[in-house]
Amino acid sequence: MSAVGTSGLQRRRGGAGANGSASPAAGPSTPTGSGPGGASASAAAAVASGALGKAALTGDHRIAYDPRDLDDPQETRAHPRLTLMDECLLLGLKDRQGYLSFWNDNISYTLRGCILIELALRRRIGVSRDGAARARPLSERPLELLDSRMTGEVLLDETLRLIKGAEPMGAAQWVDLLSGETWNVTKIGFQLKQVRERLAKGLVDKGVLRTEKRNFLLFDMATHPVADSGAKDAVLRRVLTLLTSRSGTLPSPGSLYRDEGKAVSAPATRSLALLCCAFSANVLENALTHLAYDAREAAFQKADDLLADFAQWPMAPRSGAAIGSNVAGPAGGARKPGIGEGSMSTEAQGAGVSTAELAKAVRAELVRGDAGEAQFETIAAVLHVLSRMDSLL
After folding, report:
1. 113 closest CA partner among 201, 172, 189, 197
2. Beta carbons of 95 and 209 less than 8 angstroms apart
3. How far apart (Å, rounded) are the C-alpha atoms in residues 179 and 192?
4. Complete DSSP assignment for 316-347
5. What is this structure's pTM?
6. DSSP assignment, residue 315?
7. Would the pLDDT of 267 be above 90?
8. Domain boundary at 51, 69, 87, which?
9. What is the tally of structural domains in the chain?
10. How far is CA 137 from CA 77, 170, 357, in A?
11. Structural contact between residues 243 and 299, judged by C-beta atoms closer than 8 angstroms
12. Residue pLDDT, tens place only, 145-162
């Protein structure tokens, strides 16, 4: 009995043939590609075949993997290492303490908007081009799934699956559902949970943050101080370039992401979206603490103006370089001064890249094909939702 049991166990482990004899070795059988290049050759063959769950040999072990989990060279080449959500969260984190302000109620809602903007920049979703949808308000025009390929970012891929399995809905409804802001119990499952914590852990994996434990009164809490200050400095530099430029002109858009060491798709649009989302999430103040009072107030007013100008379609209609098929702007004269703007010095009011310069750069990216008109309209729709957030919350 013992011999029979042992033989059967060996057959199961070694994958014996039909004759019922055990494999010569008691351990796992060795595949044919076990030479020095066997591991990489097996992986490459599996990727080329598109089969899922094939075994790739690494050392003396078999591992199962999904080729969709591997980095897409096109995604890696065209987009920065940090997503829009990563950058927005990074601006809100305190460098040494490693946590967000306990009083910030806006960032969770804004991060859901960042997810939709990031998907639009990656050409995964866009506003429906159906003629009937054009009559609806901007934030209610339905979003369509244009490309269901996974991005490699967990939150983006989870949102893609939700959009793929749902009926078309507008940007306002999607941001609400992803945030859990709904009374419809049948749509509770659309909520993305623990977004901030998952983003922080993702930044730890990317080497930007590290994990520590801090004691708060009676309990321990995981915090994520900044480990790579260069990554956060690059994000701050992009924001400050738009808000504090003395010349009013935008430097070469490619220089906004020079830290990436590659040509990033739609750099001016990404930087504009980051600035507007940071302002909406109430994390912009962390980037402006070193400025004098007048300069800081002027920067806040500039961010408010840019959000108002680009949160409509066509974008920036009075700039002379409107983005969108219909460039006729709304009726009305010049923009009225913002709250407190009249008391600022002329020098402070002139700070930052002008709306016209930024609109030209964004329009050039549309013409160049960094993203389609449906994607830019999606960005405008999400910014419109975020611009109304104070009245929604």
Report:
1. 172
2. no
3. 6
4. STTSSS-BSS--PPPS--SPPP-TTGGGS-HH
5. 0.78
6. B
7. yes
8. 69
9. 2
10. 35, 9, 27
11. yes
12. 999 999 999 999 999 999
